Amino acid sequence: MPVPTKKKPQVTAARRPAAGAAQARRRELLETAAEVFAEQGYNATTVRKIADHAGMLAGSLYYHFDSKESMLEEILRTFLDELWDGYDTVLDAGLGPRETLEALVTESFREIDRHRAAVAIYQKESKQLVAQERFGFLAESQRRFEKAWLSTLERGVAAHVFRADLDVRLTYRFVRDTVWVAASWYRPGGQHSPEEIARQYLSMVLDGIAVRE
Amino acid sequence: MPVPTKKKPQVTAARRPAAGAAQARRRELLETAAEVFAEQGYNATTVRKIADHAGMLAGSLYYHFDSKESMLEEILRTFLDELWDGYDTVLDAGLGPRETLEALVTESFREIDRHRAAVAIYQKESKQLVAQERFGFLAESQRRFEKAWLSTLERGVAAHVFRADLDVRLTYRFVRDTVWVAASWYRPGGQHSPEEIARQYLSMVLDGIAVRE
DNA sequence: TAACCTACCAAACACTTGTTAGGGAAGGAC
DNA sequence: GTCCTTCCCTAACAAGTGTTTGGTAGGTTA
Questions:
Q1: Partner-chain contact A204 B207, CB within 8 Å
Q2: A120-169 pLDDT, tens digit each
Q3: Is the Cβ–Cβ distance between B198 and B104 less than 8 Å?
């Protein structure tokens, strides 16, 4: 492709100034967009609101992004990529089922700490987004997610470390939901660190809240 | 108020035909509106979509309702009224803390069974709605809700039936969220009844998923 | 029959939405 | 200096939004 057909002007690597400065601004804008999306909801968020928060006008956003939807896509893709980096590390570590569950939960709360806005958006909008083929990667991620959790739970039941009398699928949903909805009330810098929340949550899920006799 | 100033024509009780027929239609329309709101999100739902599902034109909805927002308000009010009917019955029954928790959870899943759409809407939109004074009743309900759950948990800790080493507020959030997010995947008429889901959920929350030794 | 009411339709309204086109100021490259 | 690129602004567009107004078919009442 000798003749660039893309709208964004091509810059040779040699000339590019302050390499990555443009991408830094891009990330900055995505950060504020994610926060507005998370707070007001994707549909209720106008590009003018995003521009306001970024200190610019609506049209100027289109110098950096193709569309409002592509901003949303990039936010979710970035989040899921990092999430699976962490998950895969855990899943490939060869841990036992209980240790895997503990590590997955802890990793999840760390992701909430890092990507609070993206998680909140994912929670609220993913259900309607998966229908669009543009966001098909959400469905694929969901399948991998379910597979990872279900197999961990099933491994635990087989190894007699998790109870056998519970519906595994139901348990999966409870665990999954409770972990991720934390994004709706979690505030970074609060009195509980992600690890502390994970510890208490695991204690509750594994041993229950009732006193043992 | 001898002279009616309302837009909707006043009908004397004596003449009213098929008493409550209008209100039945009203409920019917709110039912379909709630389903569309739950499926697509409130902001993404246009009055034309609601009218489509109801087999009429957008403008015709305004014969029955003042605005799109008033439809949302009535949906949520109806749901919360019924919810608190059930909750108050439980809370006034003079049960012990563990029995109260069990009854509250079971009642919650029953409400999800009855008002699936309204619960889903509440979950998704309440956070943004409470800011508007029109929806101030949501904030009041949230306060009562938190008080009911927290006091039950604290009673349980004081009576040594619930563990004392858990952060009560954190426990409350986990219990609350896990119960209500069930509305996002629950389908009435599925293989699990509300009572069965409540039973399994309570078993998990109270005793944990780990095998005891 | 005549009057009236209910529940809807048809058509438009003012406004907001995401998006685009053209321009221009600032600053580095040569 | 001149050129060129970056990054934003101004101003508009077309489509879609919630809502209103006036009308009307069909049933009910008197």
A1: no
A2: 999 999 999 999 999 999 999 999 999 999 999 999 999 999 999 999 99
A3: no
